[in-house]
Amino acid sequence: MTIGERIKNRREELGLTQDELAKKCGYKSRSSINKIELSRDLPLRKVSLMAQALETTPAYLMGWKEDHNFSDDFMEKISKYPPEEIERVMHIIDLYENASPEGRDAFETLLKLSQQNP
Prior knowledge:
Blueprint: H1 3-13, H2 18-25, H3 30-39, H4 44-53, H5 58-62, H6 72-79, H7 83-98, H8 101-116
Helix pairs in contact: 1-3, 2-3, 4-7
């Protein structure tokens, strides 16, 4: 399933129109949402904003997690972070996902070292 399909499905599950979702995300018209849903493309900087509007997480929209039903506690915690922080984390996850096995090993080593030396 593409990101556009996930957005459309989640929007429909919530009973939102394209107009309503556009307003929640700061777009001027529903045609922007229609293009996203049809083109299967969404700029990375907009993923966290779209996820918040659809009451889910960037991981679900990106296809990294199949379940969009998260606890209220989780949604409360993630909503406290500014969108740019969520985007940075998503970028790091994307780098990790696309890295070679050696790159992933290096990344995991750096994380372990950072936890040992705060």
